[in-house]
Amino acid sequence: MLLVVSVPGAPFGHPAYAQTADSFIDYAENGTGPVGTFTAYDQDGDPIEWSLSGPDAALFSIDEGVVSFRDSPNYEDPQSAQGGNVYSVTVEANGGTHDVVVTVTDVDDVGTASIDRPQPQVDRPIEASLWDEDEGVAVQRWQWARSDNGITWTDIDGATSPRRSPDETDEGMYLRAIVTYSDKFGPGKTASAVTARPVEARTLSNAAPGFVDRRGDVVTTLTLSVRENTAVGRPISRRVSATDADADVLYYELLDTPDLEDDNGDARFTIDSLSGQIRVGKVLGADDGEKEDEATTLSGDPALPENEDAGDADNSEYVLRVRVSDPSTASATVNVIVRVTNVNEPPAFDEDVPTLLKVVEIADPPVITVGDSGAPVDADTFAVTDQDGAVTSVSYSVTGDDREVFGFVSRVLKFKADHEPDFEVQSSYSITITARSGGRSVSLDVTVEVVDAEDPGEVALSQRQPQVGIEVHATPSDPDGG
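The structure corresponding to this sequence follows.
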């Protein structure tokens, strides 16, 4: 735990970090817990305003002094600004700062095995594969087994390759593939996968599957839509549907196309192999000005109709190719146009918008400023950007605990005429600035600190009307005390 305390010599009104604070933290990959918990004290009793800065600040969040990764870090896929597993961030509290270096450490990831066909068939090859993110993966042995109930297994003699063609003895049986392998953490690792259904007999005649639209007509192109910023993992409109005259179990897969992955190699889309439901693989945008660097076209059969060619498509339209196959490996392919539809997004405050303002007591009139700039705070101080395009009109309002004494007058943030800030009465104010544009709004919590100033002293007389022979006593007072 990092302790933040007020110490002699610290700037007045600001906390300072203790020298015993940890500056280097190790954090295991895939973790979801806090990176660290920080505590701060303010000698004036002002509320603590926590924030983060530094090269990797965007990858972290802070809530009441608790720092966490926004997304679980992956040692094999580092995201730090310097490109490795060392992350630099600065914890800030009311002006006090402390640099923290977080090193993500490697852990032994669990490997997984999979089988490429959900419905195996006699004499039709199936193949098992291994996935383990750790380096140095070396397969030592595959072993296939069969079972009539999916519980009790019998090894198949000679079936020690990841690829296998079921024979008549496998008919009606579930198949399991177990792999023994090693990685950088050592030998003796295992992973296994089981077929979703028992092996079926090979059919003498087979009808290939085909894609259909909502009317049941066979098609070679489908058009789907999804709202921009749809969460990762959410489905895209209706599923891609195929039919099969033999009522076979069908297997869906996304083929490699230019639009399937972004420039970083991350998949924009995924597909459920048994249902044909396409899902969002990463957050998609549909705003103007974000165009693909190159035109997207697909070659081969089936070809895109001319009026749906993606040659001049921007990032609001992606072209995918889906293949469906049955246990005999008979297949069909369809082009899928995914159109990302725009939604009305709220405006966003610019990155440099301040959350701490100042006002000097007894000033006439009191002027709210950013730091010691002297310039009054106005609407431009809280500039926003409309995520759907240029901001055309923005209105501002004040809410929060102390909203009654603030307001925007001619776009300038001011105290109301009947209120004068007094440090000895209230040393800070808490308000919320709300900006509204295009029917959507965004809010920002702001603290207005009152700067103590030299208050004029007063002298009170014991007699309002002096009289002969009666002493008059004078009593001085000063709001500043002392």
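The chain has no helices and 34 strands.
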